[in-house]
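Write out this protein's structure.
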Amino acid sequence: MIYFSLEGAKNMENLILKSLSAENFASFAEPITFTTEADLSKKEYIDNTFACGNSRFNKVSFLYGANGSGKTFFCKIIREIQRFLSFSPLAVIDAAQLMARPEFKNIDAPVKNFAFDTSYREQPTRFAIELVLDNITYHYTFAVQGQEIVYELLTKKYRRTEKLLERTSSSFKDITLRSELKGFEDVKRMVKPEALCLPIADLLNNPLASKIVSAIQGINVVSMTAGKLQPINPKKTFSEDRLRKYINIIRTADPTLRDIKVSFEEEEVEHQRNTSDDFENREAIVKTTRVGIASRHAVYENGKETTVTPISFFKDESLGTVKLFTALPYLFDVLEDGGVLMVDELENGLHLSLAKEIIHLFTNEESNPHHAQLICTSHQPLLVDGEYRRDQVWITAKDDCGKSVLHRMSDLKTSRAKVNLTNRILENAFGCNPRLFFDNNT
């Protein structure tokens, strides 16, 4: 059996991830900022971008770097933002029993700041995310010191920039709310020092807060190094229509596959009543769905198919086939509905040609009509052997003090002629290649 959390999937067609920032988090000691916004001065391969208002955004972004350079920590920036959004309502309702369950393990853990320089220990960790929702840009940032939120800001930009939420200390008294969040003013006292204000406004059904929190939580971050991935909505993921598509694709790798059956067993994990300041008599309900997967394969006699036999899919199939199967739900979710998918080590367990096919699904207008965005980390320079823009490629590198930095390849001073990105990576642009591990040690 496999275990998934059950949450309602929401249409993310109008979501664009514009930028992502962090400071004093993991190996990122100094501020780093990543953006999908295309550099309009670079004219190559415009079809790899899509327009929104006066801006253009990359459909696919690549992040390269040596082992230990910070690629996985980059992916965890989103995960940390999502963790704080999820934890805040639990802190408000004082759900200690709920947080003790395995599915909430470490949800209240202290943030991981830069560990290799003592001067960073007492400095706050900062996160920022910028989204475009329905052609409006929202910039959300917050800072954590110890286990308290010491700063929080939400701005909205349509024709002008407007502050909707500003918090200057861990106290709810230092929260200022405006415009669409003004209605939360009378109950902002619920916001505890360790909780973010925005997800509490979402908890109390503020429409704008719910829209932004849902959009951020809807960004899927997965690692291809994981043995089994966990789709958000298993019943949609394994619908009959989806399974037919999966089977047609998997048969390319395993021509004996005839059928995949999925069984569901839904159970309520917790039914927790809020006993602290519960003026709306709220309850926290968490459900999980057990998913069983069985596959049937053709059996031949004298070259003719005679019957079928079941096998243990995750145990007996090749690692590459399993990786492909577990990745397909994420690809179809975002390609069918729009949104953002971040994949750590995209090529892990997959043939290079297959990884490039996945990338092509996002750059192709026909297979990606909703302009879903793919952000992937990789060790494989040949992924960008083709028609890709310089501003699609980012490099992580780590200095001798353990600090990771992030650079965009379009920042290189090169001629206007098209640049061979694969060669530039192999030539160690921005120091993205590992040092010789075994030099003078053999």
